[in-house]
Amino acid sequence: MGYDVSPRPAPRQAEKWSDQEVEQLARLAAKRWRAKAIAAEMGRTEAGVRGKAASHGIALVSDRSPAPITLRRLSA
Q1: Is the CB of residue 59 less than 8 Å from the CB of residue 29?
Q2: pLDDT tens digits for 8-66?
Q3: Percent of the chain with pLDDT over 70
Q4: What pLDDT digit, counting tens, does each position of 50-67 carry?
Q5: Does a structural domain hold residue 29?
Q6: Domain range holding 50?
Q7: CB contact at 8 A, 34 and 63
Q8: In a domain? residue 71
């Protein structure tokens, strides 16, 4: 009596980063996306996004900073 063991695919966060993914990370960071949102968009962990950004000198928005506010001119 045995179990049928099928190979499980490696988790997405275990894959190496492609050049296109690093470029996408830089673009999203430039648009002031938070690390958590970038991670969700790219299918990576937040820690992985933060680590990759740090190793490439990409600045991320702090989770402690206030959300960007859009001010509109009010017409009377």
Answers
A1: yes
A2: 554 565 789 999 999 999 999 999 999 999 999 999 999 999 999 999 999 998 877 66
A3: 67
A4: 999 999 999 998 877 665
A5: yes
A6: 17-55
A7: yes
A8: no
In a domain, 6, yes or no: no
Is residue 7 situated within a structural domain?
no
Dihedrals φ, ψ of 12, to 5°?
-55, -35
Closest CA to 24 of 54, 2, 49: 49
Domain count, the chain: 1
Report CA torsion sign: 52, 33, 29, 66.
negative
Number of neighbours of residue 66 by Cβ within 10 angstroms: 6
Are 12 and 43 spatial neighbours (Cβ–Cβ below 8 Å)?
yes
pTM score above 0.70: no
